[in-house]
Write a structure and sequence with these properties.
2 domains, 13 strands, alpha/beta, 26% strand, single chain, 10 helices, globular, 39% helix, Hypothetical Protein Tm841, Chain: A,domain 3, Rossmann fold, 6-stranded mixed beta sheet
């Protein structure tokens, strides 16, 4: 039976030690800013990006991964005799999955599966980890795909943004658009639902927003175990570490991962964003 490799993209923003220790291959999306192009997490790192963004009078744009990005990694993995499972950012947020489909057609004899994950950031990261851990343990491509598909129903993500202006400017504001006029007065709690950004609740302070995210995660987890938690952020290091410690303790989590909102995603949510992703019951 062939080995299985996972292909994902940089929006998952898994800490490097996970990528290095598991059969995970990461394709960077790109940030375009003031005439220059930066590969997400390679040419520009999160804290550098958010510090610049918070002071900039210009807004970056982002580009999906290209067909060549996928065909290059597929060619390498096929040559190494891997079957491949591709887990890209949600099609409701990016067209990256279309590049994966086009590249797949270039390798008609290879075993390449692609899932529209409907996830992003560390919610996607948890799906990738579940699949990659199964692959490392020797599962077949179809078994790994089944695990990734099952994981979706065990994963959720909530986040709070400091301001809605970045989501509004990027056209990805979804169900939160009704709050734009009051954005300076509230802290919106949002989620990724069915692959798109949706509004959950608005509160008036950052601390209440964090409390609300924990309440929502607890409601979703509903006693299921084990629980894996990730807190990821955009230039909110201290608050993120405190929130991770708090949530790991609160849920007696089996795993706690501190990560960043990738620059590509951060272009649309802005500095100060803080998020909780979870996987429960598998």
């Amino acid at each position: 039976m062939k080995k299985v490799a996972i292909v994902t993209d940089s929006t998952a923003y898994l800490p490097q030690e996970y990528v290095d220790s598991l059969p995970i291959n990461v394709i960077p999306l790109t940030v375009n800013w003031d005439g220059k192009t930066y590969r997400d997490g390679i040419d520009i790192k999160p804290n550098e990006f958010y510090t610049r963004l918070s002071k900039s009078s210009t807004m970056p744009t982002t580009s999906q991964a290209t067909v060549k990005d996928f065909s290059d990694i597929y060619e390498k993995l096929v040559a190494e005799d891997y079957d491949i499972l591709t887990l890209p950012i949600s099609s409701g947020i990016s067209g990256t999955i279309n590049s994966a489909y086009q590249a797949q057609k270039m390798f008609p004899k290879a075993s390449i599966e692609i899932i529209d994950t409907k996830l992003v950031s560390m919610a996607l990261g948890f799906q990738v980890l579940a699949a990659a851990r199964a692959a490392k343990d020797g599962a077949s491509l179809q078994e790994v795909k089944a695990i990734a598909t099952k994981a979706y129903d065990h994963i959720g993500v909530y986040f709070v943004v400091d301001t809605l202006k970045y989501l509004h400017a990027g056209g990805r504001i979804g169900g939160a658009k009704r709050w734009v006029g009051t954005a300076l007065k509230i802290k919106p709690v949002l989620e990724i639902r069915d692959g798109k950004i949706e509004a959950v609740k608005s509160v008036y302070t950052f601390s209440k927003a964090l409390d609300e995210m924990i309440r929502l995660v607890e409601q979703d987890v509903n006693g299921r175990t084990p629980v894996r938690i990730s807190v990821f952020h955009a230039l909110a290091d201290e608050a993120a570490q405190t929130l991770l410690d708090r949530t790991v303790k609160h849920f007696n989590a089996e795993e706690g991962i501190l990560s960043y909102v990738s620059p590509v995603v951060g272009s649309h949510v802005g500095p100060g964003t803080i998020s909780i992703a979870y996987m429960a019951g598998m």
